[in-house]
Amino acid sequence: MKKTFDCIVCPMSCHLEVTKQKDDIQVRGNxxxxxxxxxxxxxxxxxxMLTTTIRIEHAxxxxxxxxxxxxxxxxxxxxxxxxxxxxxVSAPVHVNDVIVKNIADSGAxxxxxxxxxxxx
Amino acid sequence: xxxxxxxIIGGGSAGMSAAIAAKExxxxxxxxxxxxxxxxxxxxxxxxxxxxxxxxxxxxSGPMYAQRFIDQIHAYRIPYRLCSDVVWIDERLRVQxxxxxxxxxxxxxxxxxxxxxxxxxxxxxxSIPGKRLPGVYTAGSAQRFLNLENIxxxxxxxxxxxxxxxxxxxxxxxxxxxxxxxVAEIMPYSNGLNRNIVQCLKDxxxxxxxxxxxxxxxxxxxxxxxVIAQVDEHRNILPKTQKSFAVxxxxxxxxxxxxxxxxxxxxxxxxxxxxxxxxxxxxxTSIPHIYACGNAxxxxxxxxxxxxxxxxxALCAVQDIKGQYHRQKQFSTQAGSGISYVLPHSVDxxxxxxxxxxxxxxxxxKQVMINIRTGDRIIKTITKRYLLPSEMERIILKPSDIxxxxxxxxxxxxxS
Amino acid sequence: MKxxxxxxxxxxxxxxxxxxxxxxxxxxxxxxxxxxxxxxxxKANSAIVHAGYDPVDGTLKAKLNKRGAxxxxxxxxxxxxxxxxxGGYVLASNEEEVEILQELYARGKKRGITxxxxxxxxxxxxxxxxxxxxxxxxxxxxxxxxxxxEVCEALVxxxxxxxLQLHLHEExxxxxxxxxxxxIRSDKGQYSVDMLVNAxxxxxxxxxxxxxxxxxxTITPKRGQYxxxxxxxQPYVSHVxxxxxxxxxxGVLAVPTIHGNxxxxxTSEVLKKVDNGTTTSGLxxxxxxxxxxIQHVPYQEVIHSYSGCRPTGNNNDFYIEESRRCKGIFHLxxxxxxxxxxxxxxxxxxxxxLMKLPLxxxxxxxxxxxxxxxxxxxxxxxxxxxxxxxxPGYGHIVCYCEQISEQEVxxxxxxxCGAHSIAGVKMRVRPGMGKCQGGYCEVxxxxxxxxxLQIPLHEVQYDEDSYYEVAKEGRR
Lengths: 120, 416, 476
What we know:
The structure holds three protein chains of three kinds.
Chain A: E1 2-6, E2 15-21, E3 24-28, H1 33-44, E4 47-48, E5 51-57, E6 63-68, E7 72-73, H2 77-85, E8 88-90, E9 98-100, E10 110-112
Parallel strand pairs in A: 5-8
Antiparallel strand pairs in A: 1-2, 2-3, 4-7, 5-6, 6-10, 9-10
Chain B: E1 2-9, H1 13-24, E2 30-33, E3 49-51, E4 60-61, H2 62-75, E5 80-81, E6 85-89, E7 94-99, E8 103-114, E9 118-120, H3 123-126, E10 136-138, H4 139-149, E11 151-152, E12 156-160, H5 164-175, E13 179-185, H6 194-201, E14 208-210, E15 212-218, E16 225-230, E17 243-246, E18 249-252, E19 256-258, E20 290-292, H7 303-321, E21 330-335, E22 339-343, E23 346-348, E24 355-361, E25 365-374, E26 377-387, E27 393-397, H8 399-402, E28 409-415
Parallel strand pairs in B: 1-2, 1-8, 2-5, 8-20, 10-18, 12-13, 12-18, 13-14, 21-28
Antiparallel strand pairs in B: 3-4, 6-7, 7-8, 9-19, 15-16, 16-17, 21-23, 22-24, 24-27, 25-26, 25-28
Chain C: E1 2-7, H1 11-20, E2 26-31, E3 48-49, H2 60-79, E4 83-84, E5 88-92, H3 95-110, E6 116-119, H4 120-126, E7 136-140, E8 144-146, H5 148-161, E9 165-167, E10 172-178, E11 181-186, E12 190-193, E13 195-198, H6 204-211, E14 220-229, E15 240-243, E16 253-256, E17 262-265, E18 269-270, H7 280-290, E19 302-312, E20 319-322, E21 329-333, H8 339-354, H9 357-360, H10 381-390, E22 397-399, E23 404-405, H11 406-414, H12 422-429, H13 442-453, E24 469-470
Helix pairs in contact in C: 1-5, 1-8, 2-8, 11-13
């Protein structure tokens, strides 16, 4: 099986050619090892980082940006979004604080993506 | 009048990087003027990840990237004012700003760094036909509503322009429950980074209509439909190619323009292509001691490059403050075939430090060389597998590469 | 006590409301189907007070334009509205057009309007971007520019201080005669009135048909499309520039605005129904036709384009008469150009000549004047500083392009004829009128509206019928 992907590891956006024969996966077109790893993973199970927001009280804005601590299965994105709807925290929050552990059973934690001071 | 060595206009990625660089080079009397209520600039609403790979070798979200700089500004105790809008700068390096606490304040600067970012092109600028109805937003405006204010500006969305913000918003709004019916791009190729096409459109099966544009916006009280049509290579609309989409919202991601209103009344030389100021290799504009960097100088696609550029610009201004900047005879740089613009616009005849050339190609190329030459002398050649208008090339020239210039520096694309 | 209803809060209806509320023993109700004043023709036109040399002799247009133009300066001064007698040039590029200028010159002279024929050399001194083909010009120093919606808003506000009942968002559906007058039925209620003025602009025919047995006039929407150019320190044009008029109308003009922008337009398209859109071909036509009078148009400075429909009649003149069938009902139909310039005189004509008010009514002894809005950018630095000390909000800029402070926005929300939507704020204090077109400031304005009107952010309206959605309501 042969597939082509545009690499999303970095803004270089390398054009990857991946060939899979049984368990042997060959990658061409990558500029780095991360790109090769991405291509292999994309063949098996696509993984993505998820960034979104959750509600926060007593902060400068009503929302706190959050990020998953690692890549999560693409198929789980909407489940995590749904879980985020029901989370509300209170300022202060510090960047990288764990907001929810293992969110939506994705294997990743939900982290604060910035610090927010408490404001009344 | 208060005296300041370096006034930095804008507390976003460029302004903060510049301030930190200046501070580290021994300048303490700095003032950052930021018009919003917090530092960080546009990064605070760019909650997606992909920032910082060049600077930190990590993949950060926009706010995370900003946070590192904000924390550093605080650690260094660099002075800044928030909610402070600069209303005037002049050739005598006087700056006037206004805020609620101090009112109007005049400051005398030794150097001014324009780090005020860019703004979005909008419907007016490109005269999109159709009704004037609520429901048309720039992508950045919709992003601010969604990511900072918890407001989804619409449920059924069409996006014009495949710039990065538009693509990012296609994914963001989809994840938040909106239906993005498509993205139209007037050019035959996308203007966004490829990775964004993949993870923002392809991942969610959002169609991208290349060589298409909006020909009508319809509805009674609010946007109800947009109509797109295909265009030929001269952007003429092709008959019988219309497609209609029932949407309540049209997002525009049709380009960014350097915010240079403060220089409107000055006799500052501008680049008609980059829409920013013309600068020499010291990032100095045509008005002595006024420097420009970041998106206020030219629109970047990667924030890391903004930070790097601001860092370099600040160090040049520091030399100026310390009296170590010796102005030399200048030779212009020229955008040769295949290149839309080159920065800086001029270089010293005999440079003493590295020069970073920023260039953009006119159209996408595969397997090409970029030549930098002066007269017949080739200074440097680099090979590129891909060269895209949406991805700026940074080329670093060493003083030894350049030697002594006797005529202008030309950057051109050579197809093999 | 007499109750008079005015239908339509455009420029004509606004002047009527303003004038009528200055009389004792009169109660005035102003009906407007839109959510704000000046939402149709009065919002999207060339914003010029033509001096009055153009309409042909013997028409109401000729009489009322000249009179109206003379009235504006004082009214604007008294209301605190922008008025600039920038002067206008009517430009001729060939013999035929020079003859037209001579006709206009003679007509102007006869009417006592200051007019002068100028040679190209003199004009080009004042207008650097004049087309090479222009040979002569008619100089009309009294041609003035205003901001039409600002005048409407000020008039209605002052009328409110003097007892006007303003019914926004209320459409008149039906009018029936009763014993002592008329009963107006709207989508919100019923009102008994003694007299009624139909100043419904594009809707005047529909209102007329509610009461008349036969049609007295027909209105065709004629659309004009315009470009708006950004402000700059050296204005591209400084006077109103007209091509020599033809049978098709005044042609495509270049017009400076009070705030330093330039308008290019309008087209003149007969439509089947009102449509405020722009078209590629329409704007193309503006580009082609404006070349007749000017050159080097900086199209890279276009920040906006818009269109408006004028209610063009079937007789080349205004139709302003009392109904023969229903006494006390006054139809003001076909108020197209020069309707804006004529508006104060139309109101005066209706009240003095048709209603004969002075015979039965007296002016109020105490007329309340509104407090003029504070515009920071027009004040001296000392005054600005003093204001910010007292109200810090005047020091917090929320619209960067037009330099509008938070407090100016707050002020306009709380005025008597205040803004309650983003578009309403834009119309009154200009955030969104600059080069970013709201990209920077719309969020800020929405937040201020939410705070001041004490509503959640998602309930803030952009225009009349729009609202946002909350992204994450969730549960606590």
